[in-house]
Design brief:
Layout (H helix, E strand, L loop, with lengths): L4 H4 L4 H11 L6 E2 H8 L3 H14 L2 E6 L2 E6 L6 H10 L2 H10 L5
Antiparallel strand pairs: 1-3, 2-3
């Protein structure tokens, strides 16, 4: 996913992609390994960022046995604004990717 130069100046591309996957799809709960595969990274490379987002109240964490799941916290005071910023920057790429997915070879 190509990032936005605006967000690139504020945060890493990995964090942008994590936020896009979770905040732009708040109904979806991601298993750690599934999220890492979706982003094309290793689970260990995103664990620190996920923990920081959970600590900040942007994401919720839920453990089920040995599996850990993450999802957007829609009760976060900045959820609406964060979603809006993501839609205007990195989210556009995600929307286009989903719309064009049926046409992949």
């Amino acid at each position: 996913m190509r990032g936005s130069s605006l967000l690139d100046s504020l945060t890493t591309r990995t964090k942008q992609r994590l936020l896009a996957a979770t905040v732009l799809h708040p109904e979806r709960e991601w298993y750690l390994l599934e999220l890492a595969r979706h982003l094309g990274v290793t689970p260990s490379s995103i664990q620190r960022d996920l923990a920081a987002f959970v600590h900040a109240g942007v994401l919720k964490r839920r453990a089920d046995g040995n599996r850990v799941y993450f999802r957007a916290d829609m009760d976060c005071p900045i959820f609406t604004e964060l979603r809006s910023v993501l839609l205007k920057t990195v989210g556009l790429v995600e929307v286009l990717r989903e719309a064009l997915a049926p046409f992949r070879p």
